[in-house]
């Protein structure tokens, strides 16, 4: 793989982004979904939530995206681990996914992980 090749974002839920998770790695390319809690164009930061979990997302590269609080967004980008062990997603792609059934999304993510685990074992 080329050093500057862009990796696809691994599907993860916000619950998966704790320090003990295998997805919680510096520079990991991730795809997350969450409801927009707040954002600031001045700071280039947004906060998304899913249940009790939250994630800060840098949105400075997403100039053409119209943000709306309480809408659901999907972001693809790289995880940056801060000195305080907080993860921040540096988004390179974002889109509004209002209308997505988050419960069904989580169920499909679990099924995908089960399939991948079974496939790797065979």
UniProtKB/TrEMBL annotation:
InterPro entries: NA-bd_OB-fold, Ten1_animal_plant. Coiled coil: none annotated. It comes from the Eukaryota. GO terms for biological process: negative regulation of telomere maintenance via telomerase. It holds the Pfam family Ten1_2. One of its GO terms (cellular component) is CST complex. GO terms for molecular function: single-stranded DNA binding; telomerase inhibitor activity; telomeric DNA binding. This is CST complex subunit TEN1. The lineage of its organism: Eukaryota, Viridiplantae, Streptophyta, Embryophyta, Tracheophyta. The gene is LOC101490469.
